[in-house]
Amino acid sequence: MKKVLFVLGHLSDKDIEWLIENGSTRQLRSGEYLVRQGESIKEIYIVLSGSLRIFNEQNPQHEIAHISSGEIIGEMSFLDERPPSVSVVANEEVKVYRISLEPVRQYMEVNTRFAARFYYSIALFLSDRLRKTTSRLGYGAPEDDIDELNSNILLQVGHAGSRFHRLLNKFAES
């Protein structure tokens, strides 16, 4: 499942409009870094098209993950304000939606309902990632790695899909 659905599914249409108005796109060429390990980042990214690889600079040949459209990057640094522990580089031409962290934090101060929805969606996203990682390491039950959604999340998927398409359409001409 596209990880962006965890986030967009729990935000309101007004939240999405605010994100669209306050974000922009960025194009990357193959081999270009989006994130460098140990260097602070000031934005959250949603991959709109293309693919990227995630790796540790100490072992750059070992790919930790391969991500593509619908994935989110920078959520951990948003939460804990620490530099990323991995690097992210484009495998091909990539287009990402980006929004600076400072305006998001400022908007959260004046719109606490947005803040609650945003943090809840990030928590769901990270919980899903942790369950999958635990399972891949051999500590979870095999069925924990199945990409199933509970009924709460399933209700939001339709909205999330249309919101992601709205982001894609908005920035298609950029």
UniProtKB/TrEMBL annotation:
Cyclic nucleotide-binding domain segment(s): 7-108
Transmembrane segments: none
CDD domains: CAP_ED (cd00038)
Gene3D superfamilies in the cross-refs: Jelly Rolls
Molecular function GO terms recorded: DNA-binding transcription factor activity
PROSITE patterns: CNMP_BINDING_3
Top-rank lineage group of the source organism: Bacteria
Cellular component terms (Gene Ontology): cytosol
InterPro entries with a match to the protein in the record: cNMP-bd_dom (IPR000595), cNMP-bd_dom_sf (IPR018490), Env_Response_Regulators (IPR050397), RmlC-like_jellyroll (IPR014710)
PANTHER family per UniProt: CRP FAMILY TRANSCRIPTIONAL REGULATORY PROTEIN, DNA-BINDING TRANSCRIPTIONAL DUAL REGULATOR CRP
Record's protein name: Transcriptional regulator, Crp/Fnr family
Record organism: Haliscomenobacter hydrossis (strain ATCC 27775 / DSM 1100 / LMG 10767 / O)
